[in-house]
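Quick illustration, no need to memorize.
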Amino acid sequence: IKENLIKISLGENDKVFENNGIKIAVDKKSFLYLVGTTLEYHGGLNGKGFVFNNQMQIEHAAAEKAFHYK
């Protein structure tokens, strides 16, 4: 297994997360949008791919929708 296949330069405000040996670097601006997001891989009969889930965004959208319909 080769390590460090991708070399990147990080800014002083970038955040690096590691889980199960996988590192993800996120810049400060993107981090604000990704807080609370989970990344899942689905490999079922309906297709394969990554899915971003953000429960906070779902709750925010539901609250906005409820507000507009009142």
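The chain is about 30% helix and 35% strand.
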